[in-house]
Design goal:
Blueprint lengths: L2 H15 L4 H8 L3 H10 L4 H10 L4 H12 L2 E3 L2 H9 L1 H11 L4 H7 L4 H13 L3 E4 L3 E4 L1 E6 L5 H14 L20 H25 L22 H4 L10
Helix pairs in contact: 1-5, 2-3, 6-7, 7-9
Length: 249
């Protein structure tokens, strides 16, 4: 990801944390809302405009660049202790998922049966776990990367395999598949590497889109599950038809 792209995303995040819309920024800077939207869409800012936006956020350009650098150092993987702590409390796990998806404090207590006091306690625990940095007025800064991975074979991966993936592959009644595709084949090591790189690319792009959509109201976003997997595998139906290996002479 380019530094300009990262800077633009950090600016969007800061505006969201301060509950500032593009319209409000435009009014404060005495320019049109379309001009503000264009700057963010094209990721093009003059130093003067960048400094003016920073002033609205009560920060300096140095603060902004420091935040960008800090974002680049987000956690890409949790520890075993962090994963176990999340799994020990389903509500804490829910809170972690919500903050990862950019839900505001108001969204969390409005959508789920969680009291204001309990939500504050959950955010405080996520802060102690170093998953977020808790800010005034129940705001927070996310400290985990959008494309973070579970520990291979770790607590969260085992939980996903046992509790989530099985149910994911068996939709509830009248719950449609948005997209479903299965493909198998016999591939060379080179082709397998190419497929793996493409899957990794899609994973990163999906994570980036989730990051960009964090600025939208929860009511304009839909819960979606995306499962991608690849491993050496042959259906047992075919495996049972294999010719036995020749007997040793």
């Amino acid at each position: 990801m380019s530094q300009i792209t990262q800077l633009t995303r950090v600016l969007k995040q800061c505006l969201r944390e301060h509950n500032l819309t593009y319209k409000q920024v435009a009014e404060q800077l005495s320019i049109s809302e379309a001009s503000v939207k264009r700057s963010f869409a094209q990721q093009r800012f003059s130093l003067e405009r960048l400094e003016a936006i920073c002033q609205l956020l009560a920060m300096t350009l140095s603060d902004l660049f420091a935040t960008v650098e800090k974002q680049r150092q987000r956690l890409s993987q949790l520890t075993v202790e962090q994963e176990n702590t999340l799994l020990d409390d389903p509500r804490l796990l829910l809170a972690a998922v919500c903050v990862r998806d950019g839900w505001s404090f108001k969204d969390i207590i409005g959508y789920y049966a969680i009291s204001e006091t309990e939500a504050i306690q959950l955010l405080a625990r996520l802060d102690r776990l170093k998953l977020i940095e808790l800010l005034p007025d129940n705001r927070y800064r996310l400290l985990i990367a959008q494309d973070f991975r579970w520990i291979p074979g770790g607590p969260l991966e085992r939980f996903m395999e046992q509790e989530v993936m099985v149910k994911f592959m068996a939709p509830k009644k009248n719950e449609p598949w948005t997209f479903r595709f299965y493909l198998r084949g016999r591939y060379s090591p080179t082709s397998i590497d190419i497929i793996q790189r493409r899957l990794d690319q899609i994973t990163h792009e999906a994570a980036q889109l989730n990051e960009e959509d964090r600025s939208l109201p929860v009511t304009e976003r839909k819960h979606m599950g995306l499962l991608m997997a690849m491993r050496p595998w042959e259906p047992s139906l075919f495996e049972n038809m294999r010719r036995p290996p020749p007997a040793p002479e």
